[in-house]
Amino acid sequence: MSSQIAIRIPEILAQQLEELVASGRFDTKADAVRAALEALVDAERRADVGRRIVEGYRKVPQDDVDVAAAAEAASRSIDEEPW
Questions:
Q1: Of all helices (H) and strands (E), which one includes residue 9?
Q2: Using an 8 Å Cβ cutoff, are 21 and 29 in contact?
Q3: Which helix (H) or strand (E) element contains residue 13?
Q4: What is the pLDDT along the chain (83 residues), one digit of tens a residue?
Q5: Which helix (H) or strand (E) holds 53?
Q6: Which of 13, 18, 36, 66 lies in disulfide reach of 62, CB 3.0 to 4.6 Å?
Q7: Half-sphere exposure of residue 38, counting CA atoms within 13 Å on the CB side?
Q8: For residue 76, which of 33, 68, 48 has the smallest C-alpha distance?
Q9: In Å, how far from its chain's centre is CA 2?
């Protein structure tokens, strides 16, 4: 299922959208707008995850034991690489 929306955009943005389609980067203006919205939603989701991680560390900060354990795990992981 999909929803149709109508928006107004500045003329310069409309021209740039046309150029994206004309260049072959997107098949249609709708495809370009859809890709932009998907990228925006993904960026916002990632930013939200980042904010939640920061909030978690502010509520329960790492101590020296946590940092040492993470450093040791990272070191072991690197040592196990076949390079």
A1: none
A2: yes
A3: helix 11-22
A4: 999 999 999 999 999 999 999 999 999 999 999 999 999 999 999 999 999 999 999 999 999 999 999 999 999 999 989 87
A5: helix 29-59
A6: 66
A7: 6
A8: 68
A9: 23
